[in-house]
């Protein structure tokens, strides 16, 4: 079975992205909870395993579908290897600009979740540099109409957390379609250092609004697509400090 590396600092390879796109397509087809936005299963704390642009996954899947594998099973020349020629379609699609955009995307989801709309973030980021990420989380409480984004990180040995708080409502995309969309309006921003609130600001002037669709949901896994064209794969956080 093809295994996708998640929580890795390096960008996934083309084959990883294509395999992920296929797996997501199959999972959404088998989705056990069609009305995910109104299901109690969506409530709780989630930690992000992987995030990327949906367009990047589709491009990788389309490009690799047209590639011809070499007899040995290794990548064909021009398909990400060192072979000659003008390069594969994937080489042209995943340009340095596209890759840079994806890196920037992950940065904002890790450190400034409010800039990314309905974002969560990535656990397992690199420990190099002054800021050491300890994971980003999203908390849903649809019964109370609340959503919260949390970015946890260490700075100079101090444990910090950015909380972006908001309201969440179920939105119907089209009449008769499964209810999978949650619309969030972020209202306040808190900075906690070693568990103490050091800063609290309203976000009414920025009025950050976003939505997230969840085409796959079960007891442990959530696959969502945000309004910025982003895809999230998140796991339910069952760690001891989840509360």
From TrEMBL:
Residues 16-58, 182-233 form the Plastid lipid-associated protein/fibrillin conserved domain. One of its GO terms (cellular component) is plastid. Pfam families: PAP_fibrillin (PF04755). This is Plastid lipid-associated protein/fibrillin conserved domain-containing protein. Residues 62-77 have a biased composition (Low complexity). Keywords: Plastid. Transmembrane segments: none annotated. Its main location: plastid. InterPro entries: PAP, PAP/fibrillin_dom. It is found in: Plastid. Residues 62-85 are annotated as: Disordered.
